[in-house]
Sequence to fold (307 residues):
Amino acid sequence: MARQKVVDNVYIDLTPEEEAELEAQAEAADLDMAMVRSQRDGMLRFTDWTQVGDAALGDHTAEEWITYRQELRDLLGEYSRVSDVVWPEDPPAAKVTRKINAGEAAHAASITNGDTIEQAQTAYDAAYAATD
Amino acid sequence: MACWNVIDETTLTGAAASISFTSISSSYDHLYLTVSARDTKSAYYNYLEFRFNGDSTPYSNTYLNASTATVTSTRDTSSGTGDVIGMMASDDALADTFSTTTMWIPNYSNTSNFKQCLIQSVVPNDSNTNNEWYLRLTAGLFARQDAIDQIRVKPYSSPQFQEYTSIVLYGINGA
Fold:
């Protein structure tokens, strides 16, 4: 079904030329990394504080933040299409991901072993808590 | 006292690639648009393009942007420069969440000066994560002396507006 536009409240099918123009714009947009660069720059600015000497980093080390920020800096060299970009996780998000993955693995193993749902949930919780 | 006249109003009953108003009367002092929008892009936000009179040039944009704790100012030299640009919610934002954009086009029908506009966009989202919400203030310039009698509004690139996206075009007199 053709895409439509609305002109003065009337739905009208796009012409083949208009469809082609949209596709060309989509291709150009996918190659335009300006929004990615803008987001990346914002994320770097937002984490500048982690590199201050006496910053309170909580559960994470300055090295973890340095690694994350380097991944952000490398991002534009690694991707040439917006649709391919995979954003690195900052240290707190990465920690949560590790915990969830460990919990889900323990849950799956528990189910495979024939445990009950409650036992599998207990295994999930234990693995989640034990993972740093 | 200012008199606000609803020139036209569109609320989508299905997806659409763009929304246009044509044959806009020159009988008002200013134009004002309200846009409640969400598009189909797999992202948290997208550019919202406004094109006047069907012209793809010459436009210019200067922005204040906030999508993290740090506010930035930019000149548009790359994305969507064939239009003046606000921001809008996309499909990764919380379900049923629409962005709001308002736009002033003062003295839109004069034929002596270029047309400038003020666009304010807020893209809310139920998220504390950077780059999953957006605020933008745009100073837009359409560097033609022609009166504005057509406005096309569309998402940047090929996403479509979602159902329930609505735009109201006002003509203001006596302000």
Observations:
- The longest strand of chain A covers residues 4-7.
- Residues 106 and 123 of chain A are 6 Å apart (CA to CA).
- The helical segments of chain A are 16-31, 34-46, 62-78, 91-112, 117-130.
- Residues 91-112 of chain A form the longest helix (22 residues).
